[in-house]
Design goal:
- By secondary structure, the protein is an all-alpha fold.
- About 70% of the residues lie in helices and about 0% in strands.
- The protein has 2 domains: about 1-95, no CATH class; about 125-260, no CATH class.
- It contains 8 helices and no strands.
- Helix 1 (about 5-25) packs parallel to helix 4 and helix 7 packs across helix 8 (about 230-260).
């Protein structure tokens, strides 16, 4: 691959990341993501075009608004960097292909969902529900994923978490899994199929348990109760499957066969 392509891919991803930041800020507030143009959330001053260059403007402005000198949240350059990084990784794996654009759209959605869930403990239906439809529709563009597998992925993804949430509520009389998580896993299943759903559940559960244990240890002895949102872990599981899922499943099957032999 020409060395220029990954550079252009990173720039493209970072530019999209700038728009993702708009979605992350405005969707929970039920504001339009189209208008008005980007403004400082503190003083309301419109951001000039030369102050809205992904990553570079944050460095040149030293992380502060040019007008009111209020600090710019670390989330803005982080989202732009992650979007650019995922764009490069997908290009290196799939090249400029339909799979690149399909998975980049999925990753962009997961970035928005994860940061909104971390900040507000909600997963917007405006992303997950249309995402389910889009994932099913584009399944025919994926050579390794048939329409049937995509539909099973939706049912298995949403159904498994719905079952877990229902059982948890029956036993504890408390809500343990939000409806947003159920729709999120259904969306992930639409894009990566039922095998991806199983991998995502295992991977996200492992990471979630690890992080949850660290949080419990870090907050032991305090009166505060910290609810760790599960959406980011589901997103990490879905992203991991795209890159290493098939390899992991092949290794695991071979491992089991080795034990059986």
């Amino acid at each position: 691959m020409n060395a220029v392509i990954p550079i252009l891919g990173f720039i493209f991803g970072a530019v999209i990341g700038s728009f993702l930041n708009v979605c992350i800020h405005r969707l929970p507030r039920e504001e339009s993501i189209v208008s008005p143009s980007s403004r400082c959330p503190v003083c309301g001053t419109p951001i000039r075009s030369h102050d809205n260059i992904p990553l570079l403007s944050y460095v040149l402005l030293r992380g502060k608004c040019r007008t009111c000198k209020a600090s710019i949240a670390w989330r803005y350059p982080l989202v732009e960097f992650l979007s650019g990084l995922f764009s490069v990784l997908l290009l290196l794996r799939y090249g400029i292909s339909s799979l690149y654009f399909i998975y980049f759209a999925l990753f962009a959605s997961l970035i928005v969902i994860s940061f909104i869930d971390l900040a507000h403990r909600i997963i917007p239906d405006e992303i997950s529900l249309p995402g389910i439809v889009v994932g099913v529709v584009v399944s025919w563009l994926q050579p390794q994923l048939a329409l049937k597998e995509s539909l099973i992925g939706v049912l298995l993804g949403g159904g498994s978490l719905y079952l877990i949430a229902t059982m948890y509520h029956l036993v504890t009389k408390r809500e343990g899994m939000g409806g947003g998580d159920i729709k999120l896993l259904a969306m992930i299943g639409a894009f990566i199929g039922w095998k991806g759903v199983l991998f995502t559940i295992l991977c996200s559960s492992f990471i979630g348990a690890l992080v949850g244990s660290i949080v419990i240890l870090a907050t032991s002895g305090t009166d505060g109760k910290y609810a760790v949102p599960f959406g980011p872990f589901l997103s990490l599981g879905g992203i991991a499957y795209v890159f290493v899922g098939d390899m992991s499943i092949t290794w695991y099957i071979g491992f089991l066969r080795g034990i059986a032999a």
